[in-house]
Amino acid sequence: TDLAAFAHGLPKAELHLHLEGTLEPELKFALAARNGIELDETTVEEVRATYDFTDLTSFLAVYYPAMRVLQAAEDFHDLAWAYLQKAAAQGVVHAEMFFDPQAHTGRGVPFDTVITGYRRAVVRAQDELGISAELILCFLRDFSAEYAMATLMEALPYKAWIVGVGLDSDERDNPPTKFAEVFARAKAEGFFLTMHCDIDQVGSIDNIRAVIEQIGVDRIDHGTNIVEDPSLVALAKERGLGFTTCPVSNSFVTAQMKSDEIVSLLNAGLKVTVNSDDPAYFGGYVGDNYVALAEHAGLGAADLVRLAINSFEASWLTASRRADFI
Ligand code: HPA
Ligand code: ZN
User: Ligand 1: which atom is nearest the Cα of residue 253?
Assistant: First the structure.
C-alpha cells in the first residue's frame, strides 16, 4: 500500500534493536559452517519452527543458545553489517544498537573480539551506506551486579565506541535497583542510560517508577505499562524521556501489540518511538513495525512522521547532528 511505502521510506532512527536478535537462520548456518559448529536443525524451516514464543522467557531460551555460532570478530561484523543493510533499506539513517557482551564473554569469547567486529560494521555503514550507528552495551539482569560492574570496567578502554548502557534479559526478580551502583558508575563515566521495562511483568509499574526516580535513565525500553500511573506519565513527559516501543515484538511475547497503550502515550505527548527489538526472531524490521502499528491502530502518515521525529528527538545524537534530520 501507499502507507507501507511511505513508512519504509520515511527517514528514521532505530533505538531498540538487539544485534544478537538480528541473527537470521541463513546467517546462522553460514557462521556454523565457517566455524565447524554442528547445529540441531538443518533447514531454515526447522530453525523457524523453534520460534514458538509465548513470553519473554521462552524467547530468551532460543535467543541465547543460537549465539554460539558467533566466534570471531568477523562473525560479529557480518551480523551487524547484515542488519545495517536491511535497516538502511527500511529508511534507517541512524541506529543505536544493543549488544550483550556477557552472552559471549560468558562462553569464552573475549570482549575485544565482540566489540571490534561490531565496530567494524559501524564504520563500514558510515562509509558505504552513509548512515550513522552507535553501540549500547546491555548488561544481563539475570546475572549479578558484580558481573555487570566487571563488564563495565572491561568496556572502559572502548568508551569511544559505546554511547550508552542498557539492561536486558529476564526482568522477573531482577529489578532495576539491583543495578543502581553499576548505572551510577556508568553515568559518571559519561554514558547515556536506558533500561528495559518489559511488557506486563510482575511489578512493571514499580520498576518503571524506579528507573525514572532512582536510576535516572535517559530512555526506557518498552515501558508502556506506564499508562497505569498518570502521575508517572506526567513526570516522563516533563523529563522528555524517550520510550522505545516494539509492536511486533509485543505481539510475540504478550500476544498483544499493545497499540492502545502506544498510541495513548504518543497522543499524550511522550517521545514514543517504534522499533524492531529482535527482528530475526519476530519477523519484522523497523519499517515493518511502523506498518504493523499503523494498520492495527489506524494511524495515518502524520502519525508516522511524528514517530520518526520522536526517534531523532529520543536519540543520543548530538544536537548538531540531530539538526541534520529534524
Ligand atoms: N527484553 C529483554 N531482553 C531481551 C529482549 C527484550 O525485549 N530482547 C533481547 N533480550
Ligand atoms: Zn529489547
Answer: 7
User: Is 148 within 8 Å of 106 (Cβ atoms)?
Assistant: no
The ipTM of this complex is: 0.95
276, 249 Cβ separation under 8 angstroms: yes
CATH number of this structure's domain 2-23+73-322, picked from the four choices 3.40.50.300, 3.20.20.140, 3.30.390.50, 3.40.50.2000:
3.20.20.140
Is 0.90 topped by the overall pTM? yes
278 CB less than 6 Å from ligand 1? yes
Ligand nearest to the CA of 252: 1
Name the pLDDT band for 171 (thresholds 50, 70, 90).
Answer: very high
Write down the domain spans for the chain.
2-23+73-322
Q: Which three cell numbers, joined as nine digits, stand for 80?
A: 551487524
Q: Cα of 245 to ligand 2 centre, how many Å?
A: 9
Answer yes or no: is the C-beta of 221 below 6 A from any ligand 1 atom. no
